[in-house]
Structures are given as structure tokens and as C-alpha cells.
Amino acid sequence: MASKTNRRRNMRRSVALSCQVVREDDFRLIGDETLDVSPDGMLVRTSREDVEPGQSLIVSFKATELGIWFDTEATVARVLSGRRWGDGARAVGVRFADDGDGGGPVLDPVRRMILRGAFRRRPPPVPRVRARTA
Fold first, then answer.
1. Is 12 helix (H, G, I), strand (E, B) or coil?
2. pLDDT digit string (tens) for 110-132?
3. For residues 33, 38, 39 and 40, what is the CA-based torsion angle, rounded to 10 degrees?
4. Which of 38, 58, 59, 80 could be cross-linked to 10 through a Cys-Cys bond (beta carbons 3.0 to 4.6 Å apart)?
5. CATH number of the domain at 18-118, out of 2.40.10.220, 3.90.10.10, 2.40.160.60, 4.10.410.60?
């Protein structure tokens, strides 16, 4: 049996932050609270049902004890509708833009390193899927 590889570059951390996540095309608010954060993206609680994977977003949040603002473009990576066991709430997984995406503001490597350091002592989020039983 082949082992599954972890496609994540960075560990997610369970962090509740205030944020502003808006759709780029009409500037409608998508969410204003994070459930978890990594240097690559975040999971954002939302009440909206009209969000689809691939949509362009603008994300702004303040993190770290230094009060640094992080402003970047992002893309909806996945949508959790809140119907599955363990979902808890409706949410969207967001991937931050980087240098290879082109376009607007990106989360540069220095800011990603700041995020990584700021949250390294935070626990990872509790798994949302049930463990398989034999």
C-alpha cells in the first residue's frame, strides 16, 4: 500500500483572527473571522453560499504581537458547506497569492516567514474527519 504524501507546504495552526475577505469582482464581504491560518492560506468562517472554488479574493488581516497588517490577493481553494460531520460551520479555504501568480498584492516570503514564526507555538486544528475503523 502506497503512503499518502502531504501536499501542504506549511502546517496550519488553529488561530482565530479578525479579517476582511472580500470578492475581488464586487467587493462583497465573504468572511471576517479565521478558523485556522498558515503562511500559504487560511480557513475563513462565512455565511455566504455564493462562493465558488477559483474565485479571486482580497484578504486583509492583522496578526502577530507586532500588529503587522497582511494584505494580499487570494483564491478560493475549497468550500465547506457545513453539512458534513465535523465541519462545524460554513467556511472557505483560501490560498494566498504568491510571486508566481502575477497581478496584485502578494504575500511575500518575508511576511510568510513572519506568519510562520508568529504561530509556531499554536496547536494545529483538530481533524475534521472521523478516524477509520477496521
1. coil
2. 887 887 777 666 656 555 555 55
3. -90
4. 38
5. 2.40.10.220
